[in-house]
Design goal:
The complex is a heterodimer of chains A (350) and B (165). Chain A is α+β, with helices and mostly antiparallel strands. Chain A contains 14 helices and 12 strands. Chain A has helices at residues 12-18, 32-38, 74-79, 81-86, 88-95, 100-105, 108-113, 119-122, 164-169, 187-190, 273-279, 286-296, 307-326, 344-348; strands at residues 5-7, 23-26, 45-48, 58-60, 66-69, 173-178, 181-186, 209-215, 226-232, 240-251, 254-263, 270-271. In chain A, the strands form 3 sheets. In chain A, strands 4-5-8-6-7 form a 5-stranded antiparallel sheet. Chain A is globular. With 165 residues, chain B is α+β, with helices and mostly antiparallel strands. Chain B has 5 helices and 5 strands; from the N terminus they run E-E-H-E-E-E-H-H-H-H. The longest helix of chain B is centred in the C-terminal third of the chain and has 23 residues, at 142-164. The radius of gyration of chain B is 16 Å and the shape is globular. A 5-stranded mixed sheet of chain B has the order 2-1-5-3-4, covered by helices on one side. Classes of the chains: A alpha+beta (350), B alpha+beta (165). The A-B interface holds A 1, 3-6, 8, 26, 28-30, 33-34, 37-38, 46, 48, 50, 75, 79, 98-102, 104-105, 235-237, 334-336, 342 and B 3, 20-22, 24, 43-45, 48, 51, 57-60, 63-65, 67-68, 70, 111, 114-115, 118, 120, 124, 126-127, 129-135. Chain A: This is Xanthine dehydrogenase YagS FAD-binding subunit. Chain A: It comes from Tranquillimonas rosea. Chain A: InterPro entries: CO_DH_flav_C, CO_DH_flav_C_dom_sf, Diverse_Substr_Oxidored, FAD-bd_PCMH, FAD-bd_PCMH-like_sf, FAD-bd_PCMH_sub1, FAD-bd_PCMH_sub2, Mopterin_DH_FAD-bd. Chain A: GO terms for molecular function: FAD binding; oxidoreductase activity.
């Protein structure tokens, strides 16, 4: 690991003042320390933000929105009663990610900032336009688990976050502070598609710091019918091959409003607005959900030998909608987000 | 002057000077504080062999920079047996033959102690397997590990009720 300067500011103002090119923010460190060990990240300065005050709270705002501080640990967020009751698919996505140990360390802000799991990005000896602009893309030759939506010739990497998928579906907003002051970025616009500049991964400007994430009050209206489904190589402790967050607001037996986002298919959590429009006003049934899944993947194209992934994403999407329609389970499933659950609603459509 | 941290390690207050910010908690324990019970497996947060408790919560010590831990309370496998009496999880691992080579065992035990404290799994084997998935055992002692965590959970729960009464 390359040597770095380490500082631990006590206030947000001190942290922002300490930032300079070559610096990184350190939260739980579960991603950044790993990438520093491989050499994929080589910061000159590590700014430990975990002592900053006021960023570890979860609060309900007067308008019903839920505000989550950027330093809240993934496990604390998943276990928080407000999240379990009002945004259950956020809790399910968090518990489907990583391991108990990693969730105890990983933060909300760090989850938003986590880097791709593309093996060529992680290997500093490989060509990677995302890590080292202009060097090419060794993944293009291999590409099996890579993107099927929104990719470019320059980069076919995917965003690995589970947490960000329901956040995108629920119109969550990222609260940021920087040298130019405070601003807000919708989660759906936070991560950037690669285009010709895959090294620009997020909308954050240099020196900006995530201070929180806000779930708008409308997000809580989906709590009764909201599921996250994650398909992976093994049942636990693996990144998604495909995932989907599906939420329905049902009124009088019809879908008043639908929210749908796909994970692990693009460089950002993929909000499927065409499918949402198709679902609105309809009575929920399997044929409708199949058509919605078709619409969600209509623009998909393989980026290598991964045509299988389009089909898998389609089926993951349809199944997540069926699970959402069956209702949010009263208790978190023993295997969160798994297709191998033992609840009645899973078996009903197996 | 080297930066320094103060922490409580297995119940004992320690002041530690660190000449290098790259030192992880894992390397600090093993190479500088003569506590090699915590194991280095992958050193990348993928195997769980390095699991310790920080402020009562299980974490991967290989991904934790030591300098971030000023004021923290650390418990390692060496600090688990109070006054020479094995912790109920240690007893249960022996009773259920929950290991073969033993390399992952300190991490498994610390992770199990953390899981039981979280109260997430109870004695449901499916929830225990899910809760312990961050600890890899290449001897595949998973069946015994699950039984051990079940046993330890049951043996520790009545104690908690007595404490509360």
């Amino acid at each position: 690991m390359k040597r770095f300067d380490f500082i631990q500011p006590a206030t947000i103002e001190d942290a922002l003042a300490a930032w300079e090119p070559g610096a990184v923010w350190l939260g739980g460190g579960t991603n950044i320390v790993d990438l520093m060990k491989t050499g994929a990240m080589q910061p000159d300065k590590v700014i430990d933000i975990t002592r900053l005050p006021g960023l570890s709270e979860i609060e309900t705002l007067p308008d019903g929105a839920i505000r989550i501080g950027s330093l809240v640990r993934n496990s604390d967020l998943a276990d928080h009663p407000q999240i379990a009751r009002h945004a259950p698919m956020v809790a399910e996505a968090l518990l489907a990610g990583a391991s108990g140990q990693l969730r105890n360390a990983a933060t909300v802000g760090g989850n938003l900032m986590q880097r791709t799991r593309c093996a060529y990005f992680q290997d500093p000896t490989a060509a990677c336009n995302r890590r080292a602009p202009g060097t090419g893309c060794d993944a293009a030759q291999a590409g099996d688990g890579m993107a099927i939506l929104g990719w470019s010739e320059a980069c076919i990497a995917t965003n690995p976050s589970d947490f960000c998928v329901p956040l995108a579906a629920l119109d969550a907003v990222v609260e940021v502070q920087g040298p130019e002051g405070a601003r807000e970025i919708p989660v759906a616009a936070f991560h950037l598609l690669p285009g010709d500049t895959p090294d620009r991964e997020t909308d954050l400007a240099p020196g900006e710091l995530i201070i929180g994430v806000r779930l708008p009050a409308e997000a809580t209206g989906f709590a009764a019918n909201a599921r996250y489904l994650k398909v992976r190589d093994r049942t636990s402790y693996a990144f998604a091959m495909t995932s989907a967050a599906a939420a329905l607001r049902l009124e009088d037996g019809r879908i008043a409003e639908a929210r749908l986002a796909l994970g692990a298919v693009a460089a950002k959590p993929w909000r499927a607005t065409e499918a949402e429009a198709l679902l609105a006003g309809q009575a929920p049934d399997d044929a409708l959900f199949d058509r919605a899944a078709e619409a969600a993947l209509a623009g998909a194209a393989p980026s290598g030998g991964n045509a299988w992934k389009i089909d898998l994403a389609r089926r993951t999407t349809a199944r997540s909608l069926r699970m959402a329609a069956a209702g949010t389970p009263a208790e978190m499933p023993a295997l969160p987000a798994s297709p191998f659950g033992h609840s009645a609603e899973d078996h009903a459509h197996a | 002057m080297s930066p320094s941290i103060s922490l409580t390690l297995n119940g004992e207050a320690r002041d530690i000077a660190l000449d290098d910010p790259r030192v992880t908690l894992l390397d600090l324990l093993r190479e500088r504080l003569a506590l090699p019970g915590t194991k280095k497996g992958c050193d990348r947060g993928q195997c769980g062999a390095c699991t310790v408790l920080v402020n009562g919560r299980r974490v991967n010590s290989c991904l934790t920079l030591a300098l971030t831990l000023d004021g923290a309370e650390i418990t390692t496998i060496e600090g688990l047996a109070a006054d020479g009496t094995l912790h109920p999880v240690q007893e249960a691992f022996i009773e259920n033959d929950a290991f073969q080579c033993g390399y992952c065992t300190p991490g498994q035990i610390m992770s199990a102690v953390g899981l039981i404290a979280e109260g997430r799994a109870g004695d449901d084997p499916e929830r225990i397997r899910e809760g312990m998935s961050g600890n890899i055992c290449r001897c595949v002692a998973y069946h015994g590990i699950t039984l051990a965590v079940q046993d330890a959970t049951r043996s520790m729960t009545p104690l908690k009720k007595e404490d509360a009464a």
